[in-house]
Amino acid sequence: MSASRKHVIIIGGGLAGLACAVRLHDAGVRPLILEASDAPGGRVRTDAVEGFLLDRGFQVYLDAYPEAGSLLNLGDLDLRAFKSGALFFQNGRLHRVMDVFREPRHLLASALAPVGSISDKLHVALLKWQIGRMDSREIETHENLTTLRYLQDAGFSSAMIDGFFRAFYGGIFLERDLRTSSRMFEFTFKLFSQGHATLPARGMGEIPRQLSARLPADCIRCAAQVAAIQPGAVTLLSGEQLTCDTVVVATDATSAAHLLPGLENPEPAWRSVICLYFSAAHSPIREPIIALNGTGHGLVNHVCVPSDVAPHYAPAGQALISVSVLEQPEGLPKLAGLEAKVREELTAWFGDQVAEWRHLRTQQIKNALPEQAPGSGFTGPGFRDHGGILVCGDHLWSASIEGAIISGSRTAEKILQSS
Fold first, then answer.
1. Following DSSP, what letter does each residue of 304-320 receive, concatenated?
2. Quick one: which of 68, 242, 410, 411 has the most CB atoms within 10 Å?
3. Contact 381, 410 (CB under 8 A)
4. CA dihedral 179, 180, 183, 186 (to 10 degrees)
5. Per-residue pLDDT band at 1 (split at 50, 70, 90)
6. Residues 181-194: pLDDT tens digits?
7. What is the C-alpha end-to-end distance of the chain, expressed in Å?
8. DSSP secondary structure string, 219-281?
9. DSSP assignment letter at 334
10. Alpha carbon of 122 to those of 14, 127, 213, 303: distances in Å?
11. Given this model, what pLDDT does residue 267 score?
C-alpha cells in the first residue's frame, strides 16, 4: 500500500502522538489523533488565568534538544533563555552559582559560594568537558547507575551532592533522592552544557499548539474517549467504531496499560509535583534565573519567575511567581495549609514581600513524570509493537520533551518503512 493511501489512528494527542502524526502527514500518510481531553498537548499545556500564563507544572524547553529542534520551528516559538546558573538558598540567604564559562564575571562569587568546595566546582568543569565531548549515542551505552552513585563515583562530596545536585536536578527529575538513571543525568547535563533552558514567549503550550497547526483540522478529534482497541480498529466510548491500517497508542504508560492488558512493564511509578502560582507587584528575583533550596529540608524545591524570562507570562506591571513542591518520603504534602507553609518558608528567602503575593492557583500533578530508574530508557527502538499495535511515549525512551518526540518520530518511521 502506498503511503498516501495509508490511514493511521493515533490514540493520545500529547507530544509523542503529535510528533508521530506530523511525521506521517509530511510523508503523505493520513493520521487521525483521538484525544480524550479538550485539547492536544498531554502534560505540556498552558492555561490563561486573569491575564497570566500558567504552565501545568514548571517546565522548560532545552534549546539543544536535537530531535525536537529538527521538528519544531524554534524561531516561531520565540524562545526566551534562563541564565546559565542558579541561586541557592543556604545559610539564610541566596548564593549565586553560575556556569563561569558563559558567565565569567561571576567567577569569584561562584567560587566562594558555600555550595560545595572548590574541588567540587573543578569536578563540575571536568564533567562538563568530558560529557560535552560525548556523542549522545555513546551515553546510551554507558553503565546505568543511579545518578547518586554516578556522582559519588565521579568524586563529588556529600556537601555538593546535597546542596547542589539534589536541588538542581530535583527540579528536572522531580525527585531529590537522585535515583534517576545516570544516562538521563548525562543526557540532560550535556544539553545544559550545549544550550540553555528556555520558555516559549507565550507559554509551554505553544509547543503542542505549533505541532497541531501543522495538521489539517480534521486530523485531531478531542473529547474522543477510547473504550477498546485491536489491530486495525478502535471503538470509542460512544460506541462509534473506526477502522484503519495501523493503531498507535501514544498515551501515558498508565493509560496504555488500561487499553492494552498484558502490555510489558505496563505500570511505571510516577513522580509528582505541586506547583503554586502567585502574582506580585514586582519580581523577588528580578532576573531570568531559578532559585533553589540548597538547605536539604523544607517543602519548597525551587522558585521561578516566568515573567522575568518571558514577559508575556504576566500582565504589564505584574510578576508571575512559580513555586514547586516535590513529593516527600511520606507522599505528597496535604494541600490544606500548604500555601501558608510555603509563604512562611519563602519569607526566609525573600523577606516580608511574600505576604503581599496574591495566590492564583495551586496545581497538584500526581502523574508529572514517569519514573526512569537505572535499566529503563535509552534502550530499544523507542517504541513497542504489542500484537500489531504500536505503543510510543516518553516512558519508552526518556522522560522528557525530547524523549516523547523521539518515540513518536521513530514510530512514524516504523509505519512508513512498512508501507
1. E-HHHH-GGGS-TT-EE
2. 411
3. yes
4. -90
5. very low
6. 999 999 999 999 89
7. 6
8. GEESS--EEEEETTEEEETTS-EEE-SEEEE-S-HHHHHHHSTT-SS----EEEEEEEEEEES
9. P
10. 40, 9, 46, 27
11. 64
Whether the Cβ atoms of residue 293 and residue 346 lie closer than 8 Å to each other: no
Does position 112 have pLDDT exceeding 80, yes or no?
no
pTM over 0.85, yes/no: yes
User: In this predicted model, what pLDDT tens digit does every residue of 21-48 receive, in sequence order?
Assistant: 999 999 999 999 999 999 999 999 999 9
Are 256 and 249 a contacting pair, CB within 8 Å? yes
Contact 42, 15 (CB under 8 A): yes
Residue 139 near residue 126, CB atoms below 8 Å? no
Max Cα-Cα span within the chain: 68
CA gyration radius, the chain: 22
Q: Which domains does the chain have, with CATH numbers?
A: 3-43+205-268+380-417 (3.50.50.60), 46-80+199-203+269-370 (3.90.660.20)
Distances (CA, A) of 96 to 83, 283, 285: 11, 17, 12
Q: What length does the chain have?
A: 419
- Identify the weakest region by mean pLDDT among 106-115, 169-178, 254-263: 106-115
CA distance 85 to 90: 16
DSSP 77-137: HTEEEPPSEEEEEETTEEEEEE-TTT-GGGHHHHHHSSSS-HHHHHHHHHHHHHHHTS-HH
Q: Compute, in degrees rounded to 10, the torsion defined by CA atoms 209, 210, 211, 217.
A: 70
Q: Which helix (H) or strand (E) holds 39?
A: none
Find cell 505549533 and name the residue.
Answer: 210
Q: Kindly state the helix (H) or strand (E) to which residue 183 belongs, with its residue range.
A: helix 182-194
Say yes or no to pLDDT of 4 above 70. Answer: no
Cα–Cα distance measured from residue 324 to residue 338, given in angstroms and rounded to the nearest whole number: 12
